[in-house]
Amino acid sequence: MTDDNQPKPKASQPPVAFDPVEAALRQIFDDVAAEDIPDDFADLVAQLTTKSSQNKDK
Question: What's the pTM?
């Protein structure tokens, strides 16, 4: 008798070869994503959000 509620063992995946291009792109992305948002851009987004919400209220 088999028990269908028991977890099945995961199939092992072959190791993925190291890709230096992928590593470099990932590092660049992480660096850019960690940067602060410029104040001018944050102000612009706030203005657009305010205008958008005002237009929906009409």
Answer: 0.45
